Amino acid sequence: xxxxxxxxxxxxxxxxxxxxxxxxxxxxxxxxxxxxxxxxxxxxxxxxxxxxxxxxxxxxxxxxxxxxxxxxxxxxxxxxxxxxxxxxxxxxxxxxxxxxxxxxxxxxxxxxxxxxxxxxxxxxxxxxxxxxxxxxxxxxxxxxxxxxxxxxxxxxxxxxxxxxxxxxxxxxxxxxxxxxxxxxxx
Length: 186
Description:
The protein is mostly helical. Helices cover 73% and strands 0% of the residues.
């Protein structure tokens, strides 16, 4: 009888615990001889079970459950130290500090909230003439481009004038009327 890998995986915990009958275990062993993946699964399962099996049997004392129930209903906190020592230990652990820390955190949160409101109101523009315009940012960029283009045009115009003056000065002397005409071009 052939057995599939899915069937082996479903029967694996029972096989490892020794709960399968010989009729169920024999086909499983035959499959494990042929299938490396299922054989690895069995090996991993045995390794895990070795770690989980308790070595020594734990003996529970007689009447343990009744004592636990009686103490729980009586309101016993279940401490292993006497009650007077428990209060001293809790005081030394910093129990009174907890309310102080909680109040400090609340105050810090309130201060941060107020600070964030102040920063937000300070960073917002204010005035009566505020308007939202479509493409306002892009209009500014275009204006800057036009200004820079105008500056480039003015520089090139000025350099052309300088070149003309140098050319004229080199060729012939100028009269006062010509100098005044060059000044009007600006």
